[in-house]
Amino acid sequence: MRREGIGAGTDLLDLCTGTGALALHAARLGARVTAVDISRRAVASARLNTAFARLPVTVCRGDLLRALPGRTFDAVVSNPPYVPAPGLSLPRHRAGRSWDAGPDGRMILDRICDDAFTALRPGGLLLLVQSGLSRPQETVARLSAAGLDVSVTDRVTIPFGPVTRGRAGWLRARGLLGDRLDREELVVIRARKE
Fold first, then answer.
1. Quick one: which of 7, 52, 125, 189 has the fewest CB in 10 Å?
2. How remote is the C-alpha of 16 from its chain's centroid?
3. How far apart are CA 123 and CA 64, in angstroms?
């Protein structure tokens, strides 16, 4: 966010805020921040964290952009659920809601891609984190097809966390791990509305 010039005067939305880490960082940079999450626990946590930090972040409970109909932003940031998981629906309760995103890991990513163009003001920026397990090339293609200028700006390979490690057998059986034994790539996708 710092590299992208997020700061005073930036009207920023943090989708899938969780504990509010991205929202808090943006607020510290001076942005006017709205944070959204569907989980009651996440919203409570984000509200507590912003209160403790004494930062002006508006935290809303809702389903992605449906929580803020008609609103547009200078920037949208998101670290959404993106881990492939067994089952055809998203979890409705518990911690799995924070990372499980359907059999291909794209149930939330696709919705963000489909709504990003209308959520951004002219010149607006989307920064989206996702795993290589959930096909970043598809995110790039969807955002490009929506009319955004898209690139992968950052890549890092990390050891599997406990969630991915715990379902490595299932991921391998589905062909999602390829030759990876215990590491996954995370990427940051940048999309600009011209």
1. 52
2. 6
3. 21
pTM greater than 0.90: yes
DSSP character at residue 68: S
Average pLDDT over residues 15-40: 97
Q: What is the DSSP letter of 76?
A: E
The DSSP call for residue 83 is: B
Task: Give the span between the Cα atoms of 101 and 80, in whole angstroms.
Answer: 9
What region does 178 belong to: left with phi over 0, alpha with psi -120 to 50, or beta?
left
For 79-102, b/e burial (b = at least 16 CB within 10 A) is bbbbbbbeeeeebeeeebbbbbbb
Give the type of residue at 34: T
Q: Give the residue from 54, 48, 6, 46 showing the smallest Cα distance to 30.
A: 6
Q: Which residue has the tokens 């990876």?
A: 180
* Helix, strand or coil, per DSSP, at residue 51: helix
- Residues 160 and 183: beta-carbon distance below 8 Å: yes
With beta carbons less than 8 A apart as the criterion, state whether 18 and 98 touch. Answer: yes
pLDDT in the model for residue 96 = 66
| Residue 29: pLDDT band with limits 50, 70, 90 | very high
Region 75-86: mean pLDDT is 92
pLDDT of residue 5: 96
Rounded-to-integer distance, Cα 16 and Cα 64, Å: 7
